[in-house]
# Entry
Amino acid sequence: MKALVLRPVLIAALAAFAPLGAGAQTGEWAPPLDRRRGELKNAEKNLGEALTRLEQALQPLESLAQSYPLQPDPRILGPKREAARLGLQRLHKEALAADKDLGALRGLADTMLVFAALGATAKDSSVPAAQRPEFMDVERRGKMELRSENVRIHARAALSADEAAWTKALDTFERRRRVARKAAMPGGALLAALALLLAMKPRPKEPAPEASAPAALAAAFREAPSPTASLAPPPEGAAAQLAQGFRVIGPAAWSAGGPFFDAQAPDGRGVMARRVDPSLFLDQKEEPLVIAAAQAACRLSHPGLARVLGAFQHQGALFIASERPAGTLLSTCLGEGRRMQLRAVKMVVSQAAAALDFAHGQGFAHLALHPGEFFVTDQGRTTVAELGVAHPLRLLCSRKSRPESEAAAPFLAPELELGDARPAADVYALAAIAYRLLAGAPPFPGPNPLSRKRAMAFIPLSKILPAAGIDAVFIRALANEPARRHKKAGEFAAALSALPEPALPKA
# Structure
């Protein structure tokens, strides 16, 4: 039955392109292909211009969404927001239409080339190299398709993030109005206070930080594990104490210009040291918090962790000393667009996940994972560095947009960027790093990826790596809500390890 249906279609196609095949035998096939090449170039130009206009329209809407919480009454931005959204939606439709037009022309041009080649083959000849049509340039076509998909995904994510920010701003505004109305009624002050208390998210009680220390920074420094038998002995004394006997040798060549230095421990072994720029501290009360964090992190001991050895002073600067793991920083192994094989990524992720789950069980979280925190040997042994001190150091570096904080930005969980620090952020970061290793780029590249993280707007890995079930694993691991992710890093590692290896292309 299918053959009967397809036969008229094939006959019609052969009849339509028969002149082209015959023309190939007489050398007259080039003119129609030249005309098609010109049409294709115009279509590519139209798509490129449409994508550029769409990219230019994204920034105003994203900036507008960030201004909603700053307005006493966000409704005054309603007309401006509506105009920006309508303009973006119109440009998105134009880009989509241009993409479809280009795809249709490519399909027709490819078909023409096939019939021309068949005709040339029948004549025992070939298409002259100087006249081979440019529309068969696979690399250029792939780049255009990838750019088109990325820009359109970014546009949809911006619209979704804008809608969420607008809804939240309106809800906050209405809640404030209700509280103000109740406060104006008899006994309204008490009702307003009760309403505010009910609206507040309950938080566990904990010791108040020093008055001059920022709350987020102090909260990060205060995290410490409870004593267990599997931990190394805690440092003596309750107060923050500097380690003694360490000596800085010089900047570490293996760090590739990063923040690490080669140092020597009191027993003579080589260690690594992270320098803390004194200008990052707002006052003298913050440095003891860093020392206390390093002192608490000394208690963590696991084969997959570079153990923190303490904080020490050298030439007026504070350093955090840690064991120097074997291997190379993962970040120095990754060039622009460089990818790793799935089986190698499975090995790295499973070892890092075991170390993270151990730390989480002891009350620690890394909260600043990125490829520059992983050491990997040629045999695949993986070690996670700076667990227990990386998060407070990242908060310090973020005050001056230092490279150390910017390196972690593409891998930070969305709730962590908003100040909600929890172990689930490490599961998210580990998945984002695995995505980077497999795809050659982070799932949410760019200087301000938060809106795309909230919308989960990333390119499915199945388009890059044909492994069955891979998209479902990463959709869960990169979920914008912590409760929807894998409960532990080991669960994500197990799901990744269960994926089949993609089949090698046939020769």
Notes: The radius of gyration is 29 Å.
